[in-house]
Every structure is written in structure tokens, then in C-alpha cells.
Amino acid sequence: MTRVLIADDQPLVRAGLSALLAAEPDLEVVGVAADGDEAVALARSAEPDVAVLDVRMPGRDGIGVARELCGPEAERPVPVLVLTTFDLDEYVFGALEAGASGFLLKDAEPEEIVRAVRHVAAGRGTLDQALTHRVLREFADRRRLQPVTVRRGADVLTAREQDILRLLAQGMSNEEIAAELVVEVSTVKSHLARMMPKLGVRSRLQAVVWAYQNRVVTVPDGG
């Protein structure tokens, strides 16, 4: 059972998300917060497997809560899915930099939201498809916090890990990567498990962001 925390300042949204997620047999809503401070307190007491956060909330906003729950200083990291009505780049950048594993707009289909919660809880991460290329291109260009070279990827990763990272950045699932490389799915999972600690990331989405930042892959034009 995946334990979910929901934080949103709008009562109707809180109720809707709670009903949507609680209806799934593998999901349990263990906390519902109306602001960022309450969300942090509930996360510490309820110990959820994933937190679904709005961006604009009283007190600490969703980015601040994400930083608290899954940032580099978090003692017990909680994977975060940011769910918002706003697709402003700064919100997306802030969520990614805070350590969030996913970002979706609230107008996403219900099944997409449910799927995103499962993906984030499982460490896979998700990013609204309408934002992906634009966000990753801009993020890579503006957030160069480390040397941005293909060589850096070669220094950190094995050749097979680089292959898997490139396919991951194309949006492939473990099964699709395994078929492309003619290996077992378990082999792909093992490489991913070894790769992510090397990159200092906790989810597939963060690994993809790292790949774009370091020019291991590039964003196609026109995306």
C-alpha cells in the first residue's frame, strides 16, 4: 500500500484529490494539509511514501515544502509530486531544484494523476508532457551548477549506464530500454539502481535532468 500526503489550500481540490486517490486499492491517503507548514508537520508524523503538493499555499509554499521533504538536507526523504494550475517556468525549475520527482498541471486527466503518484512513489518521476522539452532545454541552459560536458558523463558512468541514461531521457520505460539493448528488464533496473547514487539523484526524472544539464543528451529542436 502506497501512503499519500496531499497539500493544497483549496478545500475542493483537497477533497477531490483525496477521493480520487483513496478510491485506488493500492493507495492510502494518510494526511491532508491546507498549507505548507501543516504539510511538513504531517509528513513527519504520518511518514507518507509520496507527497502531492500545490505550489501556492499559505506559509511555506510547495517549493519550500518540497525542499524540506526531499531536498539534499532531508533526513528521511519523501518523494514529491508537484500538482499546480500554473505552468510558469520558475515553478517548474524551483520544483526540480528542490528535489521534486514530478510536476503535473491540475488539468491533467484523473488517471494521469493517479499514474503519476504511483510513478513518483516508485522512484520513476514524471513531468507534464506539454512542458518536457521546453522545461528541460531551459533548465539545462540556465542551471549550470557543474561542468557541462559529455566527458563528465563518461567520467561518472559506465558506457552501458550512459546508453541507459540516453534511452531514459527519450522517455522509454524499463521494458522498452531492455528491448532496445537486448537485455533483461532486471538488468536495466540493476544499472539504474547503481547509476542514480553516482549522479546524486533519487528519481528517474532527476537523472534525466542531470543528463541534459551535463550534455549527455540534448533536447531536440522544436520540442
From TrEMBL:
Question: Which Pfam families does this UniProt record tie to the protein?
Answer: GerE, Response_reg
> InterPro entries from the xrefs?
CheY-like_superfamily, NreC/VraR/RcsB-like_REC, Sig_transdc_resp-reg_C-effctor, Sig_transdc_resp-reg_receiver, Tscrpt_reg_LuxR_C, WalR-like
PTM sites of type 4-aspartylphosphate: 54
Keyword field contains Transcription: yes
Q: Which SMART domains match?
A: HTH_LUXR, REC
* Domain spans labelled Response regulatory: 3-121
Domain HTH luxR-type as annotated: residue spans? 150-215
* Key words, A-Z: DNA-binding, Phosphoprotein, Transcription, Transcription regulation
A GO term for molecular function: DNA binding
Q: Which BP terms does GO give this entry? A: phosphorelay signal transduction system; regulation of DNA-templated transcription
Q: What is this protein called?
A: DNA-binding response regulator
Task: Identify the species of origin.
Answer: Cellulomonas pakistanensis
